[in-house]
Amino acid sequence: MKLSTLDDHLLRPRIGSGLAGARRHAVEFLYFGIKEARASLFAGLFFAAVFLVPREGLLGVPRYDALLVIAVVIQAWMVWAKLETMDELKAITVFHLVGFALEVFKTSSGIKSWAYPDFAYTKVMGVPLFSGFMYAAVGSYIIQAWRLLDLQVKHHPPHWMAALIALLIYANFFTHHYIGDYRWYIAACALGLYARATVVFRPFDRERSMPLLVSFVLIGFFIWLAENISTFFGIWKYPNQMGAWSTVHLGKWSSWSLLVIMTFTIVANLKHIKQRIHVPA
To answer: How far is 111 from 274, CA to CA, in rounded Å?
Structure first.
C-alpha cells in the first residue's frame, strides 16, 4: 500500500460507524496503533538504521557518518513526498540544533555525561552530527501525530508561560552541573501550568481525550526505552556502561518527559497547529 493511500484511509472522516462494545474498542485500539506507528515514521526508519548499521560501518563509511547520510536522506524524502512542509522542517531543524548543542555540552571534557566512542569524519567537538536527528525525531513524531490523530488541545496555558517553562527546562540541563538540579521544581511548575490541559484526539470516528501531561510522560517513557536499546548497541555510552551495558537510569525518563514538553512548545507555535490550541481568556 502506498503511503499516500494509507494516509488517505487514516484521515478519511467516519461518521456513524455503528461500532459498539468490544468491537469498537478493538477497532479504535487498532487504528490508534496504526496512526501512532505512522506518526513515528521518521523515528522508526532512523532507529532501524541505528540498529542495522554495523559498528564497523557500511561500505567503508564509518557508522556515525552512515547514520548521518541515512537521516538526511529520510528527512529529504519526507519533505519531497509532502509528508512534512517546509515550515515543519524549519521547526524540526530547531530541534536538531537545540539537541546538538546539548550533546556538545554533555559530552565535553568538563562534563562527560556520556560519550560517542567510535570514529567519524562528521564529528564536531566530539559529537557526531547525526545525534541531533534523535531530537528531531521527537519533533517529527509530534507533528505527524497532530495531523493523523486530528489533535486539539484545550485549556493550554498562555503561550508565553509555556515558553518560559520550556526555556527553564532547557537551561536546567546545563546549569544543574553548576548550581544544582532544579528539575523537580520546574516539573512542579509545569504540573500546575498544564494541570487543566487536555489533548483531544480521534483514533477512529469518535473524539477521545486524555490529560496532556500524561501524553508527555508516555512519550518520555518510549524515548527512554529507545535510549536503552541505543546504548545496548553502543551508539553512545554513559559512564556506568563503559565496562558492560546496564539499563539507563530511570531518572532519565523524567528528563525525556521534560524535553518532550519543550519540544511540544516549539511545535505548538507552528501556525496551523496554534489554531487548534485553546488558551482560556
So the answer is: 37
Place of cell 537551561: 171
Question: Residue for cell digits 486524555?
Answer: 210
Q: Measuring CA to CA, which residue among 261, 29, 10 is closest to residue 147?
A: 10
Residue 133 grid coordinates? 536527528
- pLDDT tens digits for range 228-258: 887 777 776 776 666 666 677 777 888 889 9
Cell of 115: 560519550
Tell me which amino acid residue 144 is.
Q
Q: At 144, list the grid cell.
A: 505527524
What secondary structure does DSSP assign to 47-80, as a single string? Answer: HHHHHHS-TT-BTTB-HHHHHHHHHHHHHHHHHH
Task: Say if residues 162 and 170 touch (Cβ distance below 8 Å).
Answer: no
Buried b (16+ CB within 10 A) or exposed e, 52-67: ebeeebbeeebbbbbb
3-state secondary structure 192-256: HHCCCCEEEECCCCCCEEEEHHHHHHHHHHHHHHHHHHHHHCCCCECHHHCCCCCCCCCHHHHHH
What pLDDT score does 243 carry? 63
- What's the pTM value of the predicted model, to 2 decimals? 0.86
215: number of Cβ within 10 Å: 21
